[in-house]
Design a protein that fits this description.
Layout lengths: L2 H18 L2 E8 L6 E5 L8 E6 L5 E7 L3 E7 L3 E7 L5 E10 L5 E10 L1 H31 L8 H25 L4 H14 L2 H10 L2 H4 L2 H15 L10 E3 L5 E3 L8 E6 L4 H17 L5 E6 L4 H10 L5 E4 L7 H5 L7 E5 L5 E4 L3 H12 L1
Parallel strand pairs: 1-7, 11-12, 12-13
Antiparallel strand pairs: 1-4, 2-3, 2-5, 5-6, 7-8, 9-10, 11-14, 14-15
Helix pairs in contact: 2-3, 2-4, 4-5, 4-7, 5-7, 8-11
Length: 374
């Protein structure tokens, strides 16, 4: 066969390969955006690099062609407005518009808005909004309870405030369950479970939500990521074997959690700057002093970033048990492994290394430990 024929066949194969590769398209309209640039970005770790850009055509249209696969991208209109979009086989249409808004001083100014329309996009945005609502509720709860404890708010007692917020949490949880059930065939719910439920809800609840998803969602890219996250959460949930921890002590020597096998251990994630952690110290100290002679141990993992405040808090509060830290704050690899998204975070580990309880505090923690020895 002649060389030019081989070349022709090779080129034909390349064209076919290119033409046959599945692709997804994002189409948009920017009525007064002719000549302006729209950027497409993708989150990679903690950065969001630009992966593509297009200049808006004279008729205001623009489009991006992407490899087939479910993923979330960020659309950036001339670096003035941003919007997360869920790209899948279901079309999503983007509209960028100029809006006139009024400032506090009654002056007006123009700003850009981005709207993305599509069935999958709708579910993704519902999940995002639900995460924001739940987060604001938790902040409100912490702020209100803090004000009551400090005497700044005398309109409610602590007990009545707890009852009120527990009721609000129950309503929020019901909304979450209904949302997951109604969206179990949508990719967006996989992101919701991974980005919110895994960080904030018990493992059993997360497992039920994951099991309810359809195979379409489970076998997608976000579904597979969620599967890995659920499995990782299972490893640090009740019944799982506590992953070993080896970090530096205040004396700069290594200490491993596994060195305490044969004992009941309270694994306590805390930090010197954490008010709720320090308020729990007297209770934890009383438990330690009562049961340490019977073999009870505490393994404190600090999320401090500098050694000074960490060591000072240990000394000031007479926390005379085992302490370690990576001094990397929230970037502590152990905290990530244990899915720690808020502190204090506590686990009780049995002599065989199994997790038997988590997130107990106050009287509930004291009663549980008492039941292990009495």
């Amino acid at each position: 066969m002649k060389l030019k024929n081989l070349t022709a066949i090779a080129l034909t194969g390349m064209v076919c390969l290119s033409a046959c590769t599945p692709q997804y398209t994002v189409e948009g309209k920017w009525a007064d955006g002719a000549g302006k640039t729209v950027y497409l970005q993708k989150k990679v770790n903690d950065e969001t690099p630009v992966i593509d850009s297009v200049v808006v055509a004279a008729d205001g249209s623009f489009s991006f062609t992407l490899p087939a696969g479910v993923d979330v991208y960020e659309l950036n209109a001339a670096k003035e407005a941003k919007k997360e979009i869920l790209v899948s086989e279901i079309p999503v249409v983007v509209t960028i518009a100029t809006e006139l808004r009024t400032a506090k001083d009654s002056s007006t100014y123009e700003t850009l808005s981005i709207e993305a329309v599509g069935d999958e996009q709708k579910v993704y945005e519902q999940g995002t909004q639900m995460i924001m609502t739940a987060s604001f509720m938790q902040l409100g709860r912490m702020f209100a309870l803090s004000n009551i404890l400090q005497g700044k708010d005398t309109t409610m007692t602590l007990d009545s405030a707890v009852v009120f917020f527990d009721m609000m949490d129950a309503r929020m949880n019901e909304s979450i369950y209904n949302f997951v059930d109604s969206a179990k065939n949508n990719y967006g719910v996989a992101y919701f479970i991974k980005d919110y439920m895994i960080r904030s809800m018990p493992f059993d609840t997360v497992q039920v939500a994951y099991d309810a998803l359809t195979d379409r969602v489970k076998q997608s890219a976000p579904g597979l990521e969620l599967k890995n996250a659920v499995e990782a959460l299972a490893a640090v949930s009740i019944g799982g074997t506590a992953p070993d921890i080896t970090l530096m002590t205040p004396d700069s020597t290594e200490l491993s959690l596994s060195s305490l096998r044969g004992h009941y251990v309270l694994l306590d994630f805390w930090a010197s700057w954490c008010g709720p952690c320090l308020r729990e110290v007297p209770n934890v100290k009383a438990i330690y002093e009562k049961y340490h002679d019977k073999g009870f141990e505490i393994f404190g993992v600090s999320l401090d970033e500098t050694a000074g405040p960490w060591k000072a808090a240990i000394k000031k509060n007479d926390m005379n048990w085992h302490h370690v830290s990576s001094l990397k704050g929230w970037e502590c690899p152990v905290a990530k492994q244990y899915n720690v998204t808020g502190i204090p975070r506590m686990y009780i580990i049995d002599p065989e290394g199994k997790i038997i309880a988590q997130d107990l505090r106050g009287e509930e923690l004291a009663n549980f430990v008492a039941g292990l020895y009495e």
